[in-house]
Specification:
The protein is mainly α and 303 residues long. It has 13 helices and no strands.
Length: 303
């Protein structure tokens, strides 16, 4: 009896119980409850089946369920589009402003975030190699890097804009400042991941530092490097968008969000958010795909 009770998912049951109780006082909740229970039933059965196709359909159904519940809540409760627009309204705004959204995507993601991401992560790996060779840098540079990483972006972004202007260079500089330290920490830890026995074996083979680095330490560090690269994908997008709030050449996702909020065009604001979310998800997925191809030997990639 005790084991059977433990197998019951407490949080979903509690959420459903609350909705059922509230539904007696608000019939509109029954429609939302029906959608949630139906999707819950379908996903539970699919999860028990397993398989790669099922692994794709489960999150798709879950995401679609959230969108349907969102649409129902906005329409049934007549929520103002200024407070929360419906997904259908966001889709309409997206379709009507594709050219504008593409121009903002190119300016923010391709010119600002991507450039800063490559420069920041590349510089972090090079500095990690120097830190690995120097105890002085290891003791002195990492605390300074931690201090710089703790600086608030809303304080550093306007400074970079004043120094480098309204173009992509200032946005890339903000992104570099955001991604450098997380990538540096992962790279330094990755270079230490090889065991002492493995390094001693390379030493007995009379391998130079470069040979040991290329044949042992860098391959061993790849899971740590990709962990840093995946973390920095979202940081790069956040840094570029926030930097545009403090100055942009009349184009860019951050600039558009700021202007659209002032005009109460919340559909366009949410459309920009959708573009940012899709770009971040795609960027993260690309890093995950590369990780699977290059670290297939690692236990975390075995199926």
């Amino acid at each position: 009896m005790n084991s059977a009770f433990r197998s019951i998912p407490i949080l979903p049951v509690a959420a459903v119980a609350i909705l059922v109780v509230a539904g007696f006082y608000d019939l509109r909740l029954w429609a939302i409850l029906a959608v949630w229970l139906g999707a819950w039933f379908v996903n539970t059965r699919l999860s028990a089946m397993g398989g790669p196709v099922v692994a794709i359909w489960v999150p798709v159904i879950f995401g679609a369920t959230l969108l349907v519940i969102w649409e129902l809540a906005v329409r049934l409760y007549e929520i103002s589009p200024v407070i929360l627009p419906a997904p259908s309204a966001i889709a309409v705004a997206f379709a009507e402003n594709t050219d504008l959204l593409w121009a903002d995507f190119v300016q923010t993601i391709l010119k600002g975030a991507l450039m800063g991401y490559v420069i920041g992560c590349g510089a972090a790996v090079l500095v990690a190699l120097a830190v690995d060779r120097s105890l002085f840098l290891q003791k002195g540079l990492l605390p300074v890097g931690a201090f710089l990483a703790a600086l608030p972006i809303v304080g550093t972004a306007p400074i970079f804009v004043m120094w480098l202007g309204f173009g992509p260079a200032s946005k890339a500089a903000v992104v570099v400042a955001m991604v450098f330290f997380p990538m540096l920490v992962n790279a330094v830890e990755g270079l230490k991941a090889s065991s002492a026995m493995q390094r001693d074996l390379m030493h007995t083979y009379a391998a130079s530092y470069g040979q040991s680095l290329m044949k042992l330490r860098l391959p061993t560090a790849l899971p740590f490097l990709f962990n840093g690269l995946k973390i920095c994908t979202t940081l790069a997008l956040i840094g570029a968008i926030v930097a545009e709030f403090f100055g942009s050449p009349t184009v860019g996702m951050g600039f558009r969000i700021k202007i659209a909020v002032g005009r109460l065009e919340m559909g366009l604001v949410w459309a920009e958010i959708v573009v940012a979310a899709l770009a971040g998800t795609g960027f993260y997925g690309l890093m995950t795909l590369l990780e699977r191809q290059l670290t297939f030997w690692h236990p975390s990639q075995r199926r």
